[in-house]
Amino acid sequence: MGRVLLARDPNLDRDVAIKLLREDLKLAPEERRALFDRMQQEAKASARLAHPNIVALYDMGEEPGLGLFLVFEFVEGPTLEDRIQKGPVGVEAAAELARELGRALRTAHAAGVLHRDIKPANIILAQSGAKIADFGIARIPGSTLTLSGGVLGTPAYSAPESILHGKFSPASDQFSLAATLYEAISGRRAFPGEDSVTVSNRITETEPAPIAELAGVDRHVDAALARGMHKHPEARFPNAEDLGEALAEALLYKPRAKMATLPDERRSREREHRASRRDLTILCLGIVLGASLMASVFLLWPSPAGQNAGPTPAGSAVRGSFVEADAGAPASAPTRP
Ligand SMILES: Nc1ncnc2c1ncn2[C@@H]1O[C@H](COP(=O)(O)OP(=O)(O)O)[C@@H](O)[C@H]1O
Ligand SMILES: [Mg+2]
Fold first, then answer.
1. Is 154 close to ligand 1, i.e. is its CB under 6 Å away?
2. Ligand 1 pocket, 2 CB below 6 A?
3. Predicted TM-score of the model (pTM)
4. Tell me: the pLDDT tens digits for 109-166?
5. Atom in ligand 1 nearest the alpha carbon of residue 81
6. For residue 64, how many C-alpha atoms fall within 13 Å in the half-sphere facing its CB?
7. Whether residue 222 lies in the annotated active site
8. CATH number at residue 204
Protein backbone atom coordinates (compact mmCIF):
# COMPACT_ATOMS: atom_id res chain seq x y z
CA MET A 1 0.00 0.00 0.00
CA GLY A 2 2.97 2.27 0.40
CA ARG A 3 5.97 3.34 -1.58
CA VAL A 4 9.47 3.47 -0.19
CA LEU A 5 11.83 5.93 -1.85
CA LEU A 6 15.54 6.39 -1.51
CA ALA A 7 16.03 10.11 -0.91
CA ARG A 8 18.72 12.55 0.07
CA ASP A 9 18.57 14.84 3.07
CA PRO A 10 20.59 17.86 1.85
CA ASN A 11 20.76 19.45 5.28
CA LEU A 12 22.33 16.50 7.03
CA ASP A 13 23.91 15.19 3.84
CA ARG A 14 22.75 11.63 4.22
CA ASP A 15 20.58 9.09 2.44
CA VAL A 16 17.17 8.36 3.92
CA ALA A 17 14.23 6.07 3.09
CA ILE A 18 10.89 7.85 2.76
CA LYS A 19 7.68 5.91 3.07
CA LEU A 20 4.59 7.38 1.40
CA LEU A 21 1.08 6.26 0.71
CA ARG A 22 0.66 5.28 -2.90
CA GLU A 23 -1.34 7.87 -4.77
CA ASP A 24 -2.21 5.61 -7.67
CA LEU A 25 -4.41 3.22 -5.71
CA LYS A 26 -7.67 5.16 -6.04
CA LEU A 27 -8.58 4.44 -2.47
CA ALA A 28 -11.98 5.07 -0.97
CA PRO A 29 -11.86 7.79 1.74
CA GLU A 30 -12.30 5.25 4.59
CA GLU A 31 -9.48 3.06 3.21
CA ARG A 32 -7.25 6.07 2.91
CA ARG A 33 -8.09 7.00 6.49
CA ALA A 34 -7.25 3.46 7.70
CA LEU A 35 -3.90 3.50 5.93
CA PHE A 36 -3.14 6.97 7.24
CA ASP A 37 -3.84 5.71 10.76
CA ARG A 38 -1.64 2.70 10.12
CA MET A 39 1.27 4.88 9.06
CA GLN A 40 0.87 7.04 12.13
CA GLN A 41 0.85 3.88 14.19
CA GLU A 42 4.06 2.75 12.53
CA ALA A 43 5.64 6.09 13.28
CA LYS A 44 4.68 5.94 16.96
CA ALA A 45 5.87 2.35 17.33
CA SER A 46 9.19 3.04 15.58
CA ALA A 47 9.73 6.23 17.57
CA ARG A 48 9.63 4.21 20.79
CA LEU A 49 12.43 1.94 19.68
CA ALA A 50 16.15 2.49 19.50
CA HIS A 51 18.06 -0.65 18.64
CA PRO A 52 20.85 -1.43 16.14
CA ASN A 53 18.71 -4.23 14.68
CA ILE A 54 15.55 -2.16 14.20
CA VAL A 55 15.21 0.36 11.36
CA ALA A 56 15.31 3.81 12.97
CA LEU A 57 12.66 6.46 12.34
CA TYR A 58 14.08 9.95 11.84
CA ASP A 59 11.01 12.02 11.20
CA MET A 60 7.43 12.21 10.09
CA GLY A 61 5.41 14.94 8.38
CA GLU A 62 2.61 15.87 6.05
CA GLU A 63 2.93 17.85 2.86
CA PRO A 64 0.25 19.07 0.50
CA GLY A 65 0.38 16.89 -2.59
CA LEU A 66 2.54 14.31 -0.81
CA GLY A 67 0.36 13.33 2.10
CA LEU A 68 1.76 11.70 5.20
CA PHE A 69 5.39 10.63 4.99
CA LEU A 70 7.77 8.81 7.29
CA VAL A 71 11.54 9.29 7.11
CA PHE A 72 13.66 6.30 8.09
CA GLU A 73 17.36 5.59 8.13
CA PHE A 74 18.29 4.19 4.75
CA VAL A 75 19.35 0.55 5.11
CA GLU A 76 21.30 -0.73 2.18
CA GLY A 77 20.99 -4.44 1.48
CA PRO A 78 18.59 -7.12 0.29
CA THR A 79 15.64 -8.28 2.34
CA LEU A 80 15.89 -11.72 3.92
CA GLU A 81 13.21 -12.80 1.44
CA ASP A 82 15.49 -11.83 -1.48
CA ARG A 83 18.38 -13.66 0.16
CA ILE A 84 16.41 -16.89 0.79
CA GLN A 85 15.53 -17.07 -2.90
CA LYS A 86 19.18 -17.95 -3.48
CA GLY A 87 19.01 -20.78 -0.91
CA PRO A 88 19.68 -21.29 2.83
CA VAL A 89 21.72 -18.50 4.42
CA GLY A 90 24.30 -20.82 6.01
CA VAL A 91 24.80 -21.96 9.57
CA GLU A 92 26.91 -19.08 10.94
CA ALA A 93 24.77 -16.40 9.30
CA ALA A 94 21.60 -18.08 10.61
CA ALA A 95 23.01 -18.13 14.15
CA GLU A 96 23.84 -14.43 13.93
CA LEU A 97 20.37 -13.65 12.53
CA ALA A 98 18.74 -15.61 15.35
CA ARG A 99 20.67 -13.66 18.01
CA GLU A 100 20.18 -10.23 16.42
CA LEU A 101 16.49 -10.61 15.64
CA GLY A 102 15.74 -12.29 18.97
CA ARG A 103 17.33 -9.41 20.89
CA ALA A 104 15.67 -6.73 18.72
CA LEU A 105 12.25 -8.28 19.11
CA ARG A 106 12.65 -8.62 22.85
CA THR A 107 13.58 -4.93 23.03
CA ALA A 108 10.43 -4.00 21.09
CA HIS A 109 8.33 -6.14 23.42
CA ALA A 110 9.96 -4.61 26.48
CA ALA A 111 8.96 -1.19 25.10
CA GLY A 112 5.39 -2.48 24.74
CA VAL A 113 5.47 -2.78 20.94
CA LEU A 114 4.26 -5.88 19.09
CA HIS A 115 5.36 -6.12 15.48
CA ARG A 116 2.64 -8.54 14.30
CA ASP A 117 4.14 -9.03 10.83
CA ILE A 118 7.58 -10.58 11.30
CA LYS A 119 8.54 -12.30 8.03
CA PRO A 120 11.56 -12.47 5.69
CA ALA A 121 10.27 -9.54 3.54
CA ASN A 122 10.33 -7.25 6.58
CA ILE A 123 13.95 -7.93 7.51
CA ILE A 124 16.69 -6.02 5.74
CA LEU A 125 20.21 -7.48 5.71
CA ALA A 126 22.60 -4.57 6.16
CA GLN A 127 26.38 -4.87 6.33
CA SER A 128 26.22 -4.06 10.03
CA GLY A 129 23.58 -6.75 10.72
CA ALA A 130 19.92 -7.58 10.17
CA LYS A 131 17.28 -4.91 10.79
CA ILE A 132 13.58 -5.32 11.42
CA ALA A 133 11.51 -2.96 9.28
CA ASP A 134 7.83 -2.28 8.72
CA PHE A 135 6.06 -1.73 12.01
CA GLY A 136 3.05 -0.91 9.81
CA ILE A 137 0.65 -3.10 11.74
CA ALA A 138 2.45 -2.87 15.02
CA ARG A 139 0.40 -2.53 18.15
CA ILE A 140 1.34 -0.24 20.98
CA PRO A 141 -0.42 0.12 24.31
CA GLY A 142 -3.22 2.66 24.40
CA SER A 143 -3.60 2.71 20.63
CA THR A 144 -7.09 2.74 19.23
CA LEU A 145 -6.24 1.44 15.79
CA THR A 146 -8.12 -1.69 14.89
CA LEU A 147 -8.19 -3.22 11.49
CA SER A 148 -11.60 -4.41 10.47
CA GLY A 149 -11.88 -7.52 8.31
CA GLY A 150 -9.11 -9.65 6.90
CA VAL A 151 -6.31 -11.44 8.66
CA LEU A 152 -3.59 -9.29 10.16
CA GLY A 153 -0.09 -10.21 9.20
CA THR A 154 0.90 -12.76 6.60
CA PRO A 155 -0.68 -16.19 7.16
CA ALA A 156 2.51 -18.11 6.34
CA TYR A 157 4.22 -16.73 9.47
CA SER A 158 1.21 -16.13 11.72
CA ALA A 159 0.81 -17.96 15.02
CA PRO A 160 -2.12 -20.40 15.34
CA GLU A 161 -3.77 -18.28 18.07
CA SER A 162 -3.61 -15.21 15.79
CA ILE A 163 -5.27 -17.12 12.93
CA LEU A 164 -7.90 -18.79 15.10
CA HIS A 165 -8.69 -16.12 17.68
CA GLY A 166 -7.01 -12.91 16.44
CA LYS A 167 -4.70 -13.00 19.49
CA PHE A 168 -1.35 -11.23 19.29
CA SER A 169 1.32 -11.21 21.96
CA PRO A 170 5.10 -11.31 22.30
CA ALA A 171 4.71 -15.11 21.95
CA SER A 172 2.94 -14.75 18.59
CA ASP A 173 5.79 -12.53 17.32
CA GLN A 174 8.16 -15.24 18.57
CA PHE A 175 6.27 -17.84 16.50
CA SER A 176 6.66 -15.66 13.37
CA LEU A 177 10.36 -15.21 14.10
CA ALA A 178 10.84 -18.99 14.49
CA ALA A 179 9.02 -19.61 11.17
CA THR A 180 11.22 -16.95 9.53
CA LEU A 181 14.44 -18.49 10.91
CA TYR A 182 13.28 -21.99 9.89
CA GLU A 183 13.11 -20.71 6.32
CA ALA A 184 16.47 -18.94 6.55
CA ILE A 185 18.14 -22.16 7.75
CA SER A 186 16.47 -24.57 5.35
CA GLY A 187 15.42 -22.44 2.36
CA ARG A 188 11.91 -23.93 2.82
CA ARG A 189 8.69 -22.58 4.25
CA ALA A 190 7.79 -23.99 7.65
CA PHE A 191 4.14 -24.12 6.56
CA PRO A 192 3.98 -24.33 2.78
CA GLY A 193 0.80 -24.17 0.72
CA GLU A 194 -0.67 -22.78 -2.48
CA ASP A 195 -3.32 -20.65 -0.81
CA SER A 196 -3.92 -19.02 2.55
CA VAL A 197 -6.54 -21.61 3.62
CA THR A 198 -4.09 -24.51 3.14
CA VAL A 199 -1.36 -22.54 4.91
CA SER A 200 -3.64 -21.61 7.81
CA ASN A 201 -4.73 -25.26 8.23
CA ARG A 202 -1.12 -26.39 8.25
CA ILE A 203 -0.23 -23.82 10.91
CA THR A 204 -3.11 -24.74 13.19
CA GLU A 205 -2.91 -28.52 12.77
CA THR A 206 0.52 -29.75 11.73
CA GLU A 207 4.14 -29.58 12.85
CA PRO A 208 6.81 -28.31 10.47
CA ALA A 209 9.04 -31.01 8.92
CA PRO A 210 12.39 -31.50 10.71
CA ILE A 211 15.27 -29.74 8.91
CA ALA A 212 18.38 -30.51 11.01
CA GLU A 213 19.50 -33.37 8.78
CA LEU A 214 18.80 -31.42 5.61
CA ALA A 215 20.81 -28.43 6.88
CA GLY A 216 23.57 -30.64 8.36
CA VAL A 217 23.11 -29.29 11.88
CA ASP A 218 22.45 -30.75 15.32
CA ARG A 219 18.95 -32.07 16.05
CA HIS A 220 18.59 -29.49 18.85
CA VAL A 221 17.98 -26.97 16.04
CA ASP A 222 14.70 -28.74 15.32
CA ALA A 223 13.91 -28.84 19.04
CA ALA A 224 14.46 -25.06 19.43
CA LEU A 225 12.42 -24.26 16.32
CA ALA A 226 9.63 -26.59 17.44
CA ARG A 227 9.48 -24.82 20.80
CA GLY A 228 9.40 -21.38 19.14
CA MET A 229 6.54 -22.60 16.92
CA HIS A 230 4.67 -24.51 19.63
CA LYS A 231 0.90 -24.51 19.13
CA HIS A 232 0.42 -23.28 22.71
CA PRO A 233 1.94 -19.81 23.24
CA GLU A 234 2.75 -20.57 26.90
CA ALA A 235 4.94 -23.52 25.86
CA ARG A 236 7.21 -21.30 23.71
CA PHE A 237 10.39 -19.67 25.05
CA PRO A 238 9.86 -17.04 27.77
CA ASN A 239 10.96 -14.38 25.26
CA ALA A 240 12.25 -13.95 21.70
CA GLU A 241 15.85 -13.47 22.87
CA ASP A 242 15.82 -16.89 24.52
CA LEU A 243 14.63 -18.43 21.25
CA GLY A 244 17.47 -16.67 19.39
CA GLU A 245 20.09 -17.81 21.93
CA ALA A 246 18.91 -21.44 22.03
CA LEU A 247 18.78 -21.61 18.26
CA ALA A 248 22.20 -20.00 17.78
CA GLU A 249 23.75 -22.38 20.31
CA ALA A 250 22.18 -25.41 18.64
CA LEU A 251 23.27 -24.19 15.20
CA LEU A 252 26.88 -23.68 16.29
CA TYR A 253 27.07 -26.89 18.34
CA LYS A 254 29.90 -29.14 17.22
CA PRO A 255 30.17 -32.64 18.72
CA ARG A 256 33.64 -33.40 20.14
CA ALA A 257 35.89 -34.96 17.52
CA LYS A 258 35.74 -38.76 17.65
CA MET A 259 38.85 -40.60 18.91
CA ALA A 260 41.14 -41.53 16.05
CA THR A 261 40.47 -45.15 15.17
CA LEU A 262 43.01 -47.58 13.82
CA PRO A 263 42.24 -49.69 10.79
CA ASP A 264 40.72 -53.03 11.84
CA GLU A 265 43.58 -55.25 10.72
CA ARG A 266 46.21 -53.25 12.54
CA ARG A 267 44.07 -53.16 15.65
CA SER A 268 43.62 -56.97 15.77
CA ARG A 269 47.35 -57.53 15.21
CA GLU A 270 48.13 -55.27 18.15
CA ARG A 271 45.62 -57.14 20.28
CA GLU A 272 47.25 -60.52 19.44
CA HIS A 273 50.70 -59.17 20.21
CA ARG A 274 49.55 -57.91 23.60
CA ALA A 275 47.94 -61.31 24.38
CA SER A 276 51.10 -63.33 23.57
CA ARG A 277 53.24 -61.01 25.71
CA ARG A 278 50.81 -61.58 28.59
CA ASP A 279 50.97 -65.39 28.13
CA LEU A 280 54.78 -65.33 28.23
CA THR A 281 54.78 -63.30 31.45
CA ILE A 282 52.39 -65.78 33.11
CA LEU A 283 54.57 -68.71 32.01
CA CYS A 284 57.74 -67.14 33.45
CA LEU A 285 56.01 -66.34 36.71
CA GLY A 286 54.78 -69.95 36.92
CA ILE A 287 58.29 -71.34 36.43
CA VAL A 288 59.75 -69.04 39.09
CA LEU A 289 57.00 -69.90 41.56
CA GLY A 290 57.28 -73.64 40.92
CA ALA A 291 61.06 -73.56 41.36
CA SER A 292 60.79 -71.64 44.65
CA LEU A 293 58.22 -74.11 45.93
CA MET A 294 60.39 -77.07 45.13
CA ALA A 295 63.41 -75.41 46.72
CA SER A 296 61.51 -74.74 49.95
CA VAL A 297 60.20 -78.32 50.10
CA PHE A 298 63.70 -79.61 49.62
CA LEU A 299 65.14 -77.38 52.31
CA LEU A 300 62.42 -78.06 54.80
CA TRP A 301 62.16 -81.80 54.26
CA PRO A 302 63.14 -83.45 57.58
CA SER A 303 66.38 -85.44 57.25
CA PRO A 304 66.80 -89.02 58.48
CA ALA A 305 68.31 -89.40 61.96
CA GLY A 306 71.87 -88.29 62.22
CA GLN A 307 71.77 -86.58 58.89
CA ASN A 308 69.92 -83.60 60.20
CA ALA A 309 71.81 -80.52 59.28
CA GLY A 310 71.32 -78.75 62.56
CA PRO A 311 70.54 -79.71 66.11
CA THR A 312 66.90 -79.90 67.00
CA PRO A 313 66.31 -79.37 70.69
CA ALA A 314 64.29 -82.10 72.27
CA GLY A 315 60.66 -81.31 72.83
CA SER A 316 60.66 -78.32 70.54
CA ALA A 317 58.31 -78.02 67.64
CA VAL A 318 59.97 -78.62 64.33
CA ARG A 319 59.43 -75.94 61.67
CA GLY A 320 56.64 -76.63 59.31
CA SER A 321 53.27 -77.99 59.89
CA PHE A 322 53.98 -81.66 59.86
CA VAL A 323 55.60 -82.35 63.14
CA GLU A 324 54.86 -81.59 66.61
CA ALA A 325 57.33 -83.54 68.70
CA ASP A 326 55.87 -85.71 71.32
CA ALA A 327 57.38 -84.90 74.69
CA GLY A 328 58.44 -88.54 75.15
CA ALA A 329 59.56 -89.32 71.62
CA PRO A 330 63.23 -89.15 70.61
CA ALA A 331 63.91 -85.70 69.25
CA SER A 332 65.68 -86.94 66.21
CA ALA A 333 63.01 -89.43 65.11
CA PRO A 334 59.96 -87.54 63.98
CA THR A 335 57.32 -89.51 62.19
CA ARG A 336 56.03 -88.65 58.80
CA PRO A 337 52.35 -88.05 58.61
N1 LIG B 1 14.63 2.00 5.79
C2 LIG B 1 14.71 1.36 4.64
N3 LIG B 1 15.85 1.37 3.94
C4 LIG B 1 15.93 0.72 2.77
N5 LIG B 1 14.93 0.02 2.20
C6 LIG B 1 13.76 -0.01 2.85
C7 LIG B 1 13.58 0.64 4.11
N8 LIG B 1 12.32 0.42 4.54
C9 LIG B 1 11.75 -0.32 3.59
N10 LIG B 1 12.59 -0.60 2.57
C11 LIG B 1 12.32 -1.39 1.34
O12 LIG B 1 10.97 -1.25 0.99
C13 LIG B 1 10.27 -2.49 1.10
C14 LIG B 1 8.87 -2.27 1.66
O15 LIG B 1 8.99 -1.68 2.94
P16 LIG B 1 8.03 -2.04 4.15
O17 LIG B 1 8.37 -1.12 5.25
O18 LIG B 1 8.12 -3.49 4.39
O19 LIG B 1 6.62 -1.62 3.57
P20 LIG B 1 5.29 -2.43 3.17
O21 LIG B 1 4.29 -1.98 4.16
O22 LIG B 1 5.02 -1.98 1.80
O23 LIG B 1 5.59 -3.89 3.28
C24 LIG B 1 11.15 -3.34 1.96
O25 LIG B 1 10.97 -4.70 1.72
C26 LIG B 1 12.54 -2.85 1.61
O27 LIG B 1 12.94 -3.46 0.39
MG1 LIG C 1 6.64 -5.03 4.52
1. no
2. yes
3. 0.74
4. 999 899 999 999 999 999 999 999 998 776 665 554 444 434 455 689 999 999 999 9
5. 25
6. 0
7. no
8. 1.10.510.10
